[in-house]
Amino acid sequence: MLAHPFILMVLVPAVAGLLGYLIGRLRNEFSFIGTVASLYYAIRLFLLSRSGEPIELTILAIGNITAGLRLDQLSGFILLFISIFTTLILFYSFRYMRGRESTRGFYLYSLLILGFANGVVLAADLVTLFFFWGGLLLLLYAILLIGRGETFRTARKALLLVGLSDFAMLLGIVILIVRTFVPGGWIDLAPRVPLPLYDPAMIAGFVLIAAGALAKAGAMPLHTWIPTAAETAPVPVLALIPAALDKLLGIYLLIRLTVYMFDIASNMVLRNVLMAIGAGTILFAVMMALVQKRMMKLLAFHAVSQVGYMVLGIGTGIPVGIAGGLFHMLNNAVYKTGLFLAGGSVEHWAKTDELEKLGGLARQMPLSFVSFLVCALAIAGVPPLNGFFSKWMVYQGVLAVGTEGNRLFPVFLVAAMFGSVLTLASFLKLLHALFLGQRPAQLERVREVPLTMWLPPFSLALACVVFGVFAYQLSLRGLIIPGLKFHELSLSGVWSPIPASLLLLAALGVGAVLYLLSVAVKPQAGRTFVGGEQIGYSEESRVPGTAFYSSVKHMPIIGELLIFGERGAFDLYNWLVGIFRVIGYVFREGVDRALKALVEFIGRLIYYFGLGLSRIHTGNLPLYLSWVFLGAVIFYLLLFLR
Amino acid sequence: MEGRILPLFVAIPLAGAFLVPLLSKLWTRFADLIASITSALLLGVSVYGWLMVNAGGMPLHYWVGGWRIIGIAMWFDALTALIVLIINIVGFCASVYSIRYLDRYTGGRWKFFTLLLLLIAGLNGLAISGDLFNMFVFIEISAIASYALVAFGTEEEEVEAAFKYMVLGEVGGAVLLFGIALIYARASTLNLAHLSQVLAGFGRTPFYWFVIATLLIGFAIKMGMEPFHAWLADAHFSAPAPISAMLSGVFIKVTGVYAMSRLMFNVFGVSRAETPAFFNLLIAFGAVSMVLGGLLAYTQNDYKRLLAYSSISQIGYILVALGIGNFWGIAGALFHILAHALGKGTLFLASGSVERQTGTRNLEQLKGLEKTMPATTWSHILASFSMAGLPPFAGFFSKLFIIIGAIAARMYWLAFLAALFSAVTLGYLTKVVNMAFFVKQNSSVTSTREAPGLMVLAMLVLVVLTVAVGVGFRGVLDHLVGPAARVLLNGLEYARLVLGG
């Protein structure tokens, strides 16, 4: 049984990681072997899963209860991408992590995480899944201890937040097991008939397990460890866990829950709750992202915001929305990993990720710039890139909810579209701050990063284009639709990516021609005559375009307004940014602080309660004896004198 | 089945305790050697006994002198097997650990090991004894040894703690003796099996309930249940670290929980269906202990005092699980006794290593020990994870069984409370991790070296067992904890087995 590819998917990376840890000099080689082997088996299993018949492997069979692994089309698809992303990120880290602290631990934990993540996806029932899921929690704690600054605080925060949701999930699993116990197994992740979703205990089980899945994916309000991790953890850790694997695993479990185990479409209230969580996450996280001053933290907030689209899409309960959510998960993992890695390259040279100290690197780091640009456009949802297509499917799902008579759908739709606009705005800022604008003097000597570091983000950027342009042919037919149980999707509206991209290319060509023409036409300088006398060139005679309408400023009222306007008072962008800043501020000061204060309050309450309790332990023996007497009286009252 | 090995459980440690003072006159290190060999032998005998019971499926018994019923009875069933294994695993680790740990104290080595062996003899004797009066005698032997051991350092604080412990402990002992006297006056027998048949003839009279309440008070003091807990924190805090590990990990559970369960389930024949009042009382007081103990632990800044309060909280878990009263609840309680003995044993030993190497236990002074004491740090972290109930460690499965039991009994609030206090446990144990081990800060109080090899070995044995019990939980449940839980669930079946065999 050990040689079964399912078992190997879990064991091989783990063993490679351990060997690399023990034999430190061959660390990179072992890591490479471990990930590539995992990738090889993942491809084999993916191809095997295309047949459509699930393949089972029983690990434990005790009486009627069996625990085992299973491969179906959905898990084949997720497995493939887990291995792809891990391979790319480890490839990147060979150079990035060189000479940093705790490299040994990093490779060990990454490979163990790969093995456990494979295990989560292969699990056939909730108990097996939880076994691997819990292992991932410990590994998350361990890997977050790596980095600079107060990593142990980050690790503890993540452990408590994710641990809390894991406890919730465990409770949910136990409720389901007790409620639906049938001879033949623990709770199956893909039962033949979906479980009913109107009994309160089943709904409680669903909600508790979904909470675990949402927390893993990073949806609000259990997301706060991700931005904290962005301050301390190295870039490959950020790219591996919050950007790629956590999304894949969290959304995988959510799809299992909503499509396979239960039928989410049957419960409108739960759908609304999921959609509200999704919409809220999109909007609030992107606002928080707008006001960030550090690149990694900004990207981390976007990693939270994008989860909103996936949850929103799955929450619609409409096939096209669910497929959109799943597709968005894949797309997000692609471009978000690309952004983290390309951004990491900048940080690698500049030794800082503070936006004020960066700028103007486009010429020196062209390949990283192009990768970052494409991924940024993709996350902002610019057609024909992949981010546009999946967001568009999510919108269609929300619209379809509207046709079912849901009055709330405009709110969700507006929130999602607004979030998209703000994402674009925040990435324009980021692009400007990193690659355009003025270059600070200390960055003059920056060069392009070596091949092993630019190739992973570049190939991800390429994937953004390919998944977008060939969305129907490649992504939907090949990956998404077989992974779900729906056979065909009804996509309404006309969007054909290939002609559109051709048009876009043509437009870009025309733009290039115009640009060349405009360069060819040089400004003409005439001679200036004053009173019949020619005066020479002088700086005074140059009229900059900005001063064209300067006379208008002297007109009453309008002039005042214009001066005002020049300072930016009428600039819609400033207004918007201002408003969102205020909302972000209120959110941070009001909600975030209030939650924090609440948590601190409870913590302090516990503390003072405990302190009060300690105070009464004065060490006074008669007092202690009187407690004993009190307890004795209670015992007699309860048992004897009833 | 006749069990000729049974007297060995008492004879070996008593012989060891006798030899230690004699031979250590020749060479002081004989004390170390005898204690380690004695506890290793005991561990071997326990494993052998367990295998016998497991293979034969029948309990072992031994009548001293062949006098049935009126003589001294010894009895070894699946529950006894579990308890003696726990006693002797932790006992062995404590003896090995003490060898280097005692370097802190000047002299008195032979006194320490004599007392430790007496403590172990008392606990083993209690576990195998089949009559009520012998149970009382063995409880007192181990209790008196523990009073002396708490005062071993002879500092003012330690002597004071030992005195309070002795007063409260003896109040408990006196109450127990009173209860036993009542029983003897009425039933004229002390043999557990015979007694259970006599009591069954009386029915559920007020006398029955009065005796139960009286005995419960005695056991509540021994196990440190709220509000009888006041001695526990001081005593476990002041004792030398290996003794704290014995007291917290083993003593309170054997003299408190085990003795109570044996009497209540097998002699008084309580069951969830017939006597719910008893079970509700356990749940109520268990829940209060769980909550208050956890809260008290949260505020402590002393490494060992924090662990001591944590023990009260974990005793609360065990009582709640017993109070649930179905198979999963009782199996959870017994599994938790095992997991807590291993985990809390490790934590107390780790605290001892830290104290020995740095000279302090104040968490506000300890900083950054992870660099110099990695083995201690990771032992503490893994044991903490087990105590907080994270998979795949032993503590996870005990809490899982308890939660399953609570849900199966439809006590959802209890399941919620148990899960919530897992988080609190994690909170206060990671507080230690952060304060003592990971904060990187210059401090005058720090250690440059890991603890000596034998001490690390003792911790590692317990940690490895914690992981092994967690990973192999299925085997542990089937062959060790499950049969033990059945002994309690079968209740009065006990008498038929003893007297029929």
TrEMBL record, chain A:
Transmembrane segments: 6-23, 30-47, 74-94, 106-124, 130-147, 159-182, 202-225, 268-291, 303-327, 370-389, 409-431, 451-474, 494-517, 597-617, 623-641
InterPro entries: ComplexI-like_HydComp, ND/Mrp_TM, Proton_antipo_N
Gene Ontology CC annotations of this record: plasma membrane
Keywords recorded for this protein, A-Z: Cell membrane, Membrane, Oxidoreductase, Transmembrane, Transmembrane helix
Chief location category: membrane
NADH:quinone oxidoreductase/Mrp antiporter transmembrane domain sequence ranges: 123-404
NADH-Ubiquinone oxidoreductase (complex I) chain 5 N-terminal domain boundaries: 64-107
Subcellular location: Cell membrane; Membrane
Protein name, per record: NADH dehydrogenase
Organism: candidate division WOR-3 bacterium
From TrEMBL, chain B:
Localization per Swiss-Prot or TrEMBL: Cell membrane; Membrane
InterPro entries reported for this sequence: CPA3_Na-H_Antiporter_D (IPR050586), ND/Mrp_TM (IPR001750), Proton_antipo_N (IPR001516)
Keywords of the record: Cell membrane, Membrane, Transmembrane, Transmembrane helix, Ubiquinone
Pfam entry (one): Proton_antipo_M
Transmembrane regions: 6-23, 30-52, 72-98, 110-129, 135-153, 165-187, 207-225, 237-258, 278-299, 306-328, 400-430, 451-473
Domain NADH-Ubiquinone oxidoreductase (complex I) chain 5 N-terminal, first and last residues per copy: 71-113
Domain NADH:quinone oxidoreductase/Mrp antiporter transmembrane, chain residue ranges per copy: 129-420
GO CC terms of this entry: plasma membrane
Main location: membrane
Segment forming the signal sequence: none
Membrane topology note: Multi-pass membrane protein
Family: Belongs to the CPA3 antiporters (TC 2.A.63) subunit D family.
Name this protein carries in UniProt: NADH/ubiquinone/plastoquinone (Complex I)
